[in-house]
Amino acid sequence: MKEPISGLSLFSHNMCKDGIEMARDVLIIGSGMAGLTAYNMLTKAGLSCLMLEKARGVGGRMSHRRHDLGGYDHGTSFFKVTSPIFKKFLQTYVDQGILDLDGGVAVAKPAGNNLARAMAPKEADFLAQKQVASITEDAGRLQLKDTDGVTYEGTKLLITCPMPQAKTLLHNHWDQSWPDAGQVSYRPVVTIMATMVARGDELGLAKLMGAGNSTNLWEADKPGRQEGHRLVVHFDEDATMPWLQTDLKELAGIMSRRLADAGNQVLDLQAHRWLYAHTKTAMDGGMLAHRDLPIWVAGDGFGLNGVESAFLSAHAAASDMIKKR
Length: 325
Ligand SMILES: Cc1cc2nc3c(=O)[nH]c(=O)nc-3n(C[C@H](O)[C@H](O)[C@H](O)COP(=O)(O)OP(=O)(O)OC[C@H]3O[C@@H](n4cnc5c(N)ncnc54)[C@H](O)[C@@H]3O)c2cc1C
What we know:
Elements lengths: L6 H8 L5 E10 L3 H12 L4 E4 L25 E3 L3 H12 L3 E4 L2 E4 L5 H6 L6 E2 L4 E7 L2 E6 L4 E9 L3 H8 L13 E13 L5 H8 L5 E4 L11 E5 L2 H4 L7 H14 L4 E14 L8 E2 L5 E3 L9 H17 L2
Parallel strand pairs: 1-2, 1-9, 2-6, 9-15
Antiparallel strand pairs: 3-5, 4-5, 7-8, 8-9, 10-12, 10-13, 11-12, 14-15
Helix pairs in contact: 2-9
This protein binds flavin-adenine dinucleotide (FAD).
Flavin-adenine dinucleotide binds next to helix 2, strand 3, strand 10, strand 13 and helix 9.
């Protein structure tokens, strides 16, 4: 994972006298596939961008957890590539050996977040561990404030966090003409990452954990991965529900004991909670553009295909932003 940028040095370098981060053409909230796609398109079109990300590095749900025993893709690893425009965009990364693309399915190498790392903004355009807490608009200028109280100013804004969070952030600026937004919902998923002494039957291991109709992936089965018996189990929705409030360390302890009590030797076990997009139908246009303000919303929730939907949504939003520059 990319190391956080030292906020202090960057700030003292870029900060204007009135305490506002240097204004940019576009502020982007979120560094998942949607934010990264938009950043690449917008900067190519000559617009200056600043990306704010609440996590330590880029990738969002296309993420990888580093570990001495080899690491886990605890978000996406494989994703569909069905649209010609996405395929064309990815070809550069295939040529660079960062991505395997075979039969319409892609996987980044040697870890699931490597595509995101390759698409990452240049350092001066990226601030990690900056969670946007509010958005205000004044005389056509948009201002974001992070949880540390620092303000960032821009002419346009692209929000790529999940729709319910986007709605909370926009608050009074939520565009009432966005009825389709109701179609976009997110549901939680528990992910367990376990390193075993020996490779066992993944279905049996997932069953011991009570993972329901889970998705189970051995890391070493993917291209370019380190050897070892690292299993990632994504619980189904019903199996996730009992664990919504459980502390993740406690959850890891419970799952570890369940495996060990059945005679499995566990070297490491970690737990994480995520959100899956559940969208009833793909939305026309695949993004939202505010009726009155220079604000766009994009992300995977607008389509049915995860990473590809995030790409297509951001592609549509960035194209619109470039058109309306
Ligand atoms: C366990 C799991 C497995 C998956 N498997 C697959 C798969 O096999 N194939 C597939 O195609 N898709 C899969 N997906 C879905 C895929 O990961 C997502 O569709 C895609 O990565 C979403 O990209 P995005 O840019 O829309 O959102 P995200 O990747 O979620 O990016 C949004 C970013 O915004 C940041 N953010 C949120 N709020 C704020 C804030 N207030 N301030 C600053 N930053 C903020 C977040 O930290 C995040 O980095 C999976 C998802 C999960 C959780």
